[in-house]
Design a protein that fits this description.
The structure is a single chain. The protein is mainly β. A hairpin with a 4-residue loop joins strand 9 and strand 10. The termini are close together. The relative contact order is 0.15.
């Protein structure tokens, strides 16, 4: 990867990050701006629709006017406007047809919302029409998935099955294909390390796989061909190997060195922002990670550059909104307006 220089500065409430290659020939500067939050949702004692348990994922409608938030603990999908006004919600905890056990991720395809429920080993499908949200069925899965996304009318799942880590299904759950070599070749370790963020990028018509335990980022085209693989700089990986009893053993890379965990991966234009940090002993939520660092990855090239300036936690980018989940002191969702665009390395 060629060297990339970085310039960062603070101006008032906004954080401006400019990433530029050393040579100006054929390159453009990417300018990103995260201003003060345009909405800050969450309450400890207020209205029930603002009392979140644990926000697991977020998505936006095709026109960007509605935001969908998945609450893992409360088992519901909540709908808000892009300005943070509540619209409606659906779902609760349970095993019934309109309930969730362990909702983990969601994606939007047209007017339908696909929710991955790891507790049921199912994908539940909800229809969003006007300002109403209703369940309309779903399908069982033959594998335990860690994430999902949608691209060109098909669903993609992060899951180790058929000796691959990405599974492609039709919207009704019919298997189409699988692709992607596992991070580790041992079958037991391959399954254990198939935990990753999976992002579908409409702009490049490709999929991005970002390891949660390992500093590996890959780009595939939607047919499953590997376009590049890169390693995140400054990432201290967990040591993963077989235990004496044949199971999986996770250990620190050194007696005084804590490993990193990937906490978020968000797309903005042709840039993938990956954030990772260290989880202190006894901390049970990735929303409480310490020493968070950010690396910008060029989607087209796989080139990486550490972002040295302090960047707010970015869990999802929805159009021109960067969304962050936080616990301070109760679960909250913050939305930041992004101003500026351009190209990164």
């Amino acid at each position: 990867m060629r060297r990339v220089t970085q310039h960062a500065r603070r101006t008032g409430a906004a954080l401006l990050i400019a990433l530029s290659p050393p040579s100006a020939v054929g390159a453009q500067t990417a300018l990103q701006s995260l201003a003060a939050p345009v909405f800050d949702l969450g309450t400890a004692e207020g209205p029930e629709h603002l009392a979140f348990g644990e926000v697991a994922d977020a998505a936006a409608s095709a026109d960007g006017s509605r935001l969908f938030f998945l609450d893992r603990m409360r088992g519901r999908v909540s709908v808000f406007t892009r300005d943070g006004e509540f619209v409606t919600e659906a779902g609760s905890r349970g095993q019934g047809p309109s309930e969730f056990i362990q909702p983990h991720a969601l994606t939007v395809m047209g007017s339908r919302i696909f929710v991955l429920d790891r507790g049921k080993m199912r994908v539940e499908v909800l229809a969003f029409e006007g300002d109403s949200l209703r369940f309309e069925g779903g399908f069982r899965m033959a594998f335990d998935a860690d994430d999902l996304c949608a691209l060109q009318g098909q669903l993609y799942f992060m899951a180790y099955a058929n000796s691959h880590v990405v599974q492609r299904l039709s919207p009704d759950g019919t298997p189409i294909s699988s692709f992607g070599d596992p991070f580790l070749t041992d079958p037991v370790l391959a399954d254990a390390t198939a935990v990753a963020h999976l992002l579908c990028d409409e702009r490049s018509q490709s999929l991005l796989v970002v390891g949660n335990l390992l500093p590996i980022v890959r780009r595939y085209d939607r047919e499953g061909r590997l376009r590049w693989e890169t390693t995140l700089p400054g990432y201290t990986a967990t040591v993963i190997d077989r235990s004496e009893r044949g199971g999986v053993r996770y250990s620190n890379p050194g007696t005084s060195i804590a490993p990193d965990l990937t906490i978020s991966a968000a797309l903005f234009g042709d840039t993938l922002f990956v954030q990772f940090g260290k989880v202190a002993s006894g901390m049970g939520s990735l929303q409480d990670v310490l020493e968070v660092r950010t690396v910008a990855v060029g989607v087209d090239t796989g080139e990486t550059v550490p972002v040295r300036a302090r960047v707010p936690r970015i869990d999802k980018v929805l159009g021109d909104l960067a969304v962050s989940y936080a616990n301070d002191p109760y679960p909250r969702i913050r939305g930041y307006r992004i101003r500026g665009s351009g190209r990164t390395p």
